[in-house]
Amino acid sequence: MTMWVFGYGSLLWNPGFEVDEQQVGMMHDYARSFCMRSIHHRGTSEHPGLVLALDEMQGARCEGVALRVKAGTEAETLAYLRERELISSAYLEKNLAVHLKNGEVIEAVTYVIDPNHVQYCHLDLEAQAQVISRAIGDRGPNTDYLHNTASHLVELGIEDEDLNWLSQRVKTLCS
Questions:
Q1: What is the mean pLDDT of the chain?
Q2: Which residues of 144-171 are buried (b: 16+ CB within 10 A; e: fewer)?
Q3: CB-based contacts of 103: which residues, under 8 Å, 6+ apart?
Q4: CB of 117 within 8 A of CB of 89?
Q5: What is the pLDDT of residue 40?
Q6: What is the CATH number of the domain that holds 140?
Q7: How many domains does the structure of the chain reveal?
Q8: Which 3 state secondary structure label does DSSP give 61?
Q9: Is 97 exposed, middle or buried (CB count within 10 Å of its CB: 0-12, 13-18, 19+)?
């Protein structure tokens, strides 16, 4: 059976698994948001960073990329993703509908935020910029995560005004 994964953050530029195909797609009723405190990859317990998550929100839409996993690697890909994405159990793994640009609707493994988890947060854009500009985790500066994601969305022709604003604001804060 064909396995798809929905990428909306670091999976856009660092999937970490073999991809046979990628297509821009839309997920309904979820918003891409820096609503997860990162205590591992982009921050620490003492100084959390922020990473993107899909926040369930009626009427919202998130444009990202559907990644078709290389045939025959589904089990190892799922094991890898679970180790990477479920490190602190702040994400929930769901199989959700993604509407591809070509009109096809596929089901994709998707990691969404658990709104009841202690790492879930809601900060305004300026507060997000302040956190991101200073946080560093075991995978590097939070700024790298933000700028890589923002630039890859632009390359894909995906407009995300909040990420563009954050990227510019963080560059200003860090200069």
A1: 96
A2: ebbbbbbebbeeeebebeebeebbebbe
A3: none
A4: yes
A5: 83
A6: 3.10.490.10
A7: 1
A8: strand
A9: middle
Q: Which two tokens stand for residue 38?
A: 């990162």
- d(CA 24, CA 66) in angstroms, rounded, equals 6
Which tens digits make up the pLDDT trace of 58-69?
A: 999 999 999 999
Alpha-helical (H) ranges within the chain are 74-85, 125-134, 142-155, 161-174
Read off the tokens for 54.
């899909």
Roughly how many angstroms between the first and final C-alpha of the chain, as a whole number?
49
Token reading at 151: 């630039």
Q: 3-state SS of the chain: helix, strand, coil percent to 5?
A: 30, 40, 30
Domain coverage including residue 116: 4-174
* 121, 35 contact by CB (below 8 A): yes
Residue 160 has a pLDDT of: 95
pTM for this model (two decimals):
0.93
Q: Which of 20, 36, 14, 18 is nearest to 119 (CA)?
A: 36
Catalytic residue numbers, as ranges: 85
Tell me the pLDDT band of 88, cut-offs 50, 70 and 90.
Answer: confident
Query: Are the beta carbons of 62 and 159 closer than 8 angstroms?
Result: no
